[in-house]
Amino acid sequence: MISLACELAGVPLSNPILTASGTFGFGKPYAPLYPLDKLGGIVTKGLTLHPRAGNAGTRIYETPSGLMNSIGLENPGLPAFLDRELEVMTSYGPAVIVNLGGGTVGEYKEGAELLTDVCRGLRDAGKRAADLIELNISCPNVKEGGLQFGLETGQALEVVRAVRRATDLPLLVKLSPGARDLTEMARMCEAEGADGLSLVNTFQAMAIDIRKRRSVFDRVYAGLSGPAVKPIALRMVHQVARAVSVPVVGIGGISGAADVLEFIMAGAAAVQIGTYNFMNLRAGGTLANELLKLMAREGIRSLEEIRGIV
After folding, report:
1. What is the pLDDT of residues 235-260, one digit of tens each?
2. Distance of CA 151 to CAs 175, 178, 186, 232, Å?
3. Which of 92, 151, 159, 162 sits 20 to 30 Å CA-CA off 143?
4. Is residue 215 classed exposed, middle or buried when 0-12, 13-18 and 19+ CB atoms within 10 A define those classes?
């Protein structure tokens, strides 16, 4: 029998299929479409301590084999999420991973402390809480905070260190493909106590409206995701997985079971699907079964026997 059960930073998962931040909301838009317990985990949309209205102008733009977005971390704020959304998210069954962003080191720290306190209270009351934090130091759509923290190791270190000291929840750090030295960044995160890494976030890109003679986006550049970025993301996951001993979550252009196996073979402990959720609204409901069938055809009995094989 083939089993997809696995573990991420000490958190058991029924399968390695997670949703990527910003593509699944808090689960509610997809809950009517399929049972969300078909997923291994759900990652929240990016949350900040205070609510954000997000970017003005065009936010989503299709490209060949990809999607560009300039959302700007629109979110209701962490306190509102904890009050209104967390209990519903935990009721779906899969692991809950809170994607946490911020504009300053202080905001990151305060957000982590608030999340930790609320989760501790829920556990003490015998209720489910968030299982992991995914620290977003790499969003390319916000001028302050994410962009600058995710590019240089020294600046990222401040955030990772502050959040690690502020929480006892398992901590993933989500890395930017624009980091000056990605493996150096990964090693720093591990040294500062990260329990795992997720990579990569979107690639900074551009589209021009030739009729208006201007960028499609008010902020000029936007984040590119989708199948077009998969070969680059796969290479980066392969490099980072060989450079650290903590688990790595692979992200970038996954749109089928074969893509999942590629990332596992490159060294990923689990994967996140993002743009594919828009291409196929029921992707998360079928992907685990498709993975089982593909593994059976390829004579693969477990993910462990192929993880990092390349």
Report:
1. 999 999 999 999 999 999 999 999 99
2. 9, 6, 12, 17
3. 162
4. middle
pTM more than 0.85:
yes
- Concerning whether 139 is annotated as a catalytic residue, the answer is yes
Question: How far is CA 160 from each of CA 43, 104, 183, 188, rounded to the nearest angstrom?
Answer: 19, 12, 15, 9
- Helical H segments across 167-205, by residue range: 182-191
Determine the Cα–Cα distance for residues 37 and 183; give it in Å rounded to an integer: 34
Domain 6-297 adopts which CATH fold?
A: TIM Barrel (3.20.20)
The pair of structure tokens assigned to 100 is 């946490």
Q: Where are the domains of the chain?
A: 6-297
147 band by pLDDT with thresholds 50, 70 and 90: low
Cβ atoms < 10 Å from Cβ of 110: 17
Q: 99, 177, 154: which is closest to 131 by C-alpha?
A: 99
Of 6, 119, 139, 189, the catalytic one is: 139
